[in-house]
């Protein structure tokens, strides 16, 4: 599968990985930040579903 035809979430994941690696972000810092972002987006999703 070429990246052009990849689903949006795959493209975004690749972009995020490249951004973190290009900026030499420590692995644990990246994990902590991504975990926090994931929790935030999950909370927003639940809030929208409740409305």
Task: Report how far apart the termini are.
Answer: 37 Å
Helical fraction equals over 70%
What is the H-and-E element order?
Answer: HH
Radius of gyration: 14 Å
SS field, number of helical segments:
2
Structural class: mainly alpha
Low-confidence spans: pLDDT under 50, at least 5 residues? none
Strand residues, percent: under 5%
Pfam family, one: DUF2496
InterPro entries: DUF2496_YbaM-rel (IPR019630)
What does it look like?
InterPro entries: DUF2496_YbaM-rel. The chain is mainly alpha-helical. The protein has one domain (3-50). Helices cover 76% and strands 0% of the residues. The chain has 2 helices and no strands. The protein has helices spanning 8-22, 27-50. The chain is flat. The model has no long low-confidence stretch (mean pLDDT 96).
How is the secondary structure organized here?
Layout: H1 8-22, H2 27-50
Pfam families: DUF2496
What key phrases describe this protein's structure?
single chain, 51 residues, 2 helices, flat, DUF2496_YbaM-rel
């Amino acid at each position: 599968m070429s990246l052009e035809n990849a689903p949006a979430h795959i493209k975004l994941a690749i972009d995020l990985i490249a951004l973190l690696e290009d900026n030499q972000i420590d692995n644990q810092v990246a994990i902590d930040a991504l975990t926090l972002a994931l929790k935030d987006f999950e909370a927003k999703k639940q809030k929208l579903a409740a409305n």
